[in-house]
Amino acid sequence: MKTAIQLLSVSLLGILVSSCASVDGLKIPAVEEPTVQKTLVQQDLYNVLPPKRKPTVAVYQFTDQTGQKRQNSGGGTSFSSAVTQAPGAYLVRALKLASRGSFFTVVDRTLLDSLTRERQLIRQTRQSYDGEGAKKLPALTFAGMIIAGGIVGYDTSVETGGAGARYLGIGASKQYSIDTVTVNIRLVSVATGEVLLDVISTKTILSTANGGDVFKFIEQGTELVEIESGVTKNESVSIATQRAIEAGVLELIHRGGEVGFWDFIDVRG
Fold first, then answer.
1. C-alpha angle 68/207/149, rounded to 5°?
2. Helix and strand tally (H, E) in the chain?
3. Which residues neighbour 225 within 8 Å (Cβ) at sequence distance 6 or greater?
4. Rounded to whole angstroms, what are the CA distances from 149 to 152, 154, 199?
5. Range with the lowest mean pLDDT among 65-74, 105-114, 201-210?
6. Per-residue pLDDT tens over the stretch 114-132
7. Which residues of 211-229 are buried (b: 16+ CB within 10 A; e: fewer)?
């Protein structure tokens, strides 16, 4: 009798594995080497026509303004932030990607204190060795406009759904959940403080779960076989934030051209 139960258990396990494989392939991913992140919007940024006059923009604080914390699978909230705490890195990168680095001159003001101390150290060192005739440092590049904003929204489970089926104790299911991240990018005039352009971009974040299970009573309820398996995939929040920022910068460039803040070089000759 035990042999029959064991054979049935093995058979049920085989059915479960087959069901899960049909849902998502159920392959364990291999260890990957580090890669440089690339997105579809980047190609559009690369292909932007360069301006006739390269504008200089300054980046100060571009941060997470949502205060959202990461949701645990059990429903609680952990101490980890829901989104990256360094979105400014993606903003600077997107600005430098525009027209392959030929569109904006970008100055990073988040390092201003460090730059000031380093320049002071250089001046003092030169004066110690060369006296008052020591070569002076060039002036810092000043910007005519400031890029401001940040991550202003992170909404969880804005859409959820799923489907499943069960037959004779053997079942399979699919579920999904969609979050959204919202980014605001503003172009501000240094001379007047006026907000020249304002762009809001959003990106969805998809999470999916595929699973299967077997639940069987054998021999008039005296033996129980229960097997579960599943695969969950979560889209990277950081990459979604990167894409939203890149889309916002691209829209900022297009709108600036429309209102005449910069003119594009006609490469058609």
1. 35
2. 5, 9
3. 8, 9, 12, 214, 215, 216, 218
4. 8, 15, 9
5. 65-74
6. 999 999 999 889 888 888 7
7. bbbbeeeeeeeeeeeebeb
Confidence at residue 71, expressed as pLDDT on a 0 to 100 scale: 67
* Token pair 């087959």 in the structure block, residue: 18
Answer whether residue 23 shows pLDDT above 50: no
145-167/170-189 β-pairing: antiparallel
User: In 27-55, which positions are buried (b, 16+ CB within 10 angstroms) versus exposed (e)?
Assistant: eeeeeeeeeeeebebbebbeebbbbeeeb
Q: Please, are residues 203 and 240 in contact by the beta-carbon 8 Å criterion? A: yes
Q: Is the pLDDT of residue 44 over 70?
A: yes
Task: Say if CB 193 and CB 215 are below 8 A apart.
Answer: no
